[in-house]
Please model this.
Amino acid sequence: MSEAESLQPDPEKVELLREVAGEIRGETSESEQLAAIVYRLSDLYDGTEETTPEDIYRATRHIVTVKERGTLARDSDRD
Model:
């Protein structure tokens, strides 16, 4: 199966991934991060979303960067 075939809209995958995201979301920032990543991953299979694996990668990198930095502000914004 090609990548294009595996990323076809699939409402069942969307529902499952979003359910998992809801279940793993917890009190810790790490569980919230992971839930956000899984939820974003579900967008790949949502026919109403226009996203790519690269978009998911960039969003995941952003989530991790914000966590490491402790803020949404960029370094230049904090000066």
Q: What stands out?
A: The CA atoms of residues 12 and 71 lie 35 Å apart. Residues 3-74 form one domain. The first helix runs from residue 3 to 6.
